[in-house]
Specification:
The structure is a single chain. The protein has helices at 40-52, 54-58, 62-78, 80-91, 95-115, 156-170, 184-200, 214-221, 235-245, 268-280, 300-310, 332-347, 376-379, 395-403, 418-427, 461-467; strands at 8-10, 13-15, 20-24, 31-36, 122-124, 136-143, 147-150, 174-177, 207-209, 228-232, 249-253, 259-262, 292-296, 351-354, 358-359, 362-363, 366-369, 386-392, 410-414, 432-435, 455-456, 469-476. It is an alpha/beta fold. It folds into two domains: 8-254 and 452-476, Aldehyde Dehydrogenase, Chain A, domain 1 (3-Layer(aba) Sandwich), CATH 3.40.605; 259-435, Aldehyde Dehydrogenase, Chain A, domain 2. The longest helix has 21 residues, at 95-115.
């Protein structure tokens, strides 16, 4: 299916590796393909080469960086449907979600190309103090250096685009480590981007990829020669990377347990639809999928009935089917963990309104109520097709419960009141507050990131490019 060389893209060529591992289709365990396995030695070699290419990447004119990204966008579009099919196979994510992923990936490449022309600085009025009289001041942005990008299995190509494209736009050599469970589509993406970079006039070694496990990640993130780590994954791993990488810069896009607040004046049908669309897409394996639903008491029973009735729309089955909305999770361990969390919540007093069990390798779309606040299903990130409903007496109580979490990535509020909408935006502690749409809505050109344990820094091409550059202040006295 995929058409790229054997081995790993390290340096200007693809280097051979000693071992390959099977990549398995989560739906039935069939072998999708063979993934080359990297090592800490290859990771160090990739950093060596990235450091050697730092000056060359930084010196690329803006028109070269922009053209490389435009060419990458064109090449990606030419293979978009094939990449979608590969994503379905290696992630087990429903086809409809893989189509969304590739469309968003293409947009990210295109908008990163546009942002190259907006990478600029400003003048500074140094004469605001007497000592600055006669001085000219301005600042520019310079590449931060080698960027290491580490991505997760749920949206591997999109997450890679959000690291690779801004790095090229900023003039940084980049080394990406894809998820071990699903590396194949990212290898293809990197191949397309390297070809585009070379055609535009840049070095192939400006973009590299190393596969592998923890030892590869540690070799990449702890090397003192890198400028920045951009990581998407779990909070626990992200915190470890931040400590190990210090004092180098880190941008962390971590987990969450996204909440959806339903006001009494909300369109309940639309809000119930949001729970269905937002809670079960990508098999629930999305950091901003609906997990906690807080509903004003006056409409709580009606709303719960609407959600349960709407579950008929969530088709469970083969992710290759365009109708499927929920399929098996990435591996058996994930399925077992999600089921264990549901069982623990029920044992602690939660009620199952729908689902609550596994069907073969698939977690049934599950709706719970009365989940204790200290249950993992409520306070941690479930990363599966499970939502928990809770009635609250009023909206201030809902906002307080939303904020009573170590996470804060995206939250949604359904209401027909502008007053409520703006009050929620002010009160909720999160990187994004979405009104009358699912918390999983993300425009890839917008600043995206969290607060608290949900991470630090922002993605989105413009904002990631700013993260991947540093200001350089110039102060000039024309006449000594």
């Amino acid at each position: 299916m995929a058409n790229y060389p054997a081995g790993l893209p390290i340096g200007d060529e693809w280097v051979p590796v000693a071992t390959y591992d099977d990549v398995l289709f989560p739906y039935d365990g069939a072998v999708v393909g063979q993934a080359p396995i990297g090592s800490k030695e290859l990771a160090s070699k990739a950093v060596d080469i990235a450091v050697e290419n730092r000056a060359a990447m930084a010196a690329l004119p803006s028109h070269v960086r922009a053209r490389a990204l435009r060419l990458a966008h064109e090449r990606f579009l030419a293979h978009q449907e094939e990449i979608e099919q590969l994503l379905v196979q290696e992630t087990g994510k429903p086809l409809v979600d893989c189509k969304v992923e590739t469309a968003r990936s293409a947009l990210t490449l295109a908008t990163a190309a546009e942002e190259v022309a907006r990478l600029h600085g400003e003048t500074v009025p140094l004469d605001v103090i007497p000592a600055g009289e006669g001085l000219i001041g301005f600042w520019t942005r310079k590449p931060i250096g080698v960027v290491v990008g580490i991505t997760g299995f749920n949206y591997p190509v999109l997450l890679a685009c959000h690291k690779l494209a801004p790095a090229v736009a900023a003039g940084c050599p980049v080394v990406v480590k894809p998820p071990p469970q699903a590396p194949l589509a990212t290898l293809w993406l990197v191949h397309l981007m390297r070809e585009a970079l070379v055609e535009a006039g840049g070095p192939a070694a400006g973009i590299q990829l190393v596969t592998g496990g923890v030892e590869v990640g540690e070799a990449l993130t702890t090397d003192p020669r890198i400028g920045m780590v951009s990581f998407t994954g779990s909070a626990a791993v992200g915190h470890h990377i931040a400590r190990a990488a210090a004092p180098r810069k880190v941008v962390l896009e971590l987990g969450s347990n996204a909440a959806l607040v339903v006001a009494a004046d909300a369109d309940l049908d639309a809000a119930a639809d949001a729970v269905i669309r937002g809670g079960f897409y990508a098999n629930g394996q999305a950091c901003i999928s609906v997990q906690r639903v807080l509903v004003e008491q006056a409409v709580a029973d009606r709303f719960a009935s609407k959600v349960v009735d709407a579950l008929d729309r969530v088709v469970v089955g083969d992710p290759r089917s365009p109708d499927t909305r929920v399929a098996p999770l990435i591996d058996a361990g994930s399925t077992e963990r999600v089921q264990a969390w549901v069982d623990a919540a029920v044992a602690a007093g939660a009620t199952v309104l729908a689902g609550g069990a596994t069907d073969g390798r698939t977690v049934q779309p599950t709706v719970l109520t009365d989940v204790p606040e200290d249950a993992d299903v409520w306070c941690e990130e479930i990363f599966g097709p499970v939502v928990a409903l809770r009635a609250v007496p009023d909206l201030p109580t809902a906002y307080a419960m939303v904020n009573n979490s170590r996470y804060g990535l995206h939250c949604a509020v359904y209401t027909s009141s502008l007053d409520t909408a703006f009050a929620a935006i002010d009160a909720i502690e999160a990187g994004g507050v979405v009104v009358n749409e699912v918390p999983g809505f993300r425009s890839d050109i917008a600043p995206y990131g969290g607060v608290k344990d949900s991470g630090i820094g922002r993605e989105g091409p413009r904002f990631a490019i700013e993260e991947m550059t540093v200001t350089r202040m110039a102060t000039i006295r024309p006449r000594p």
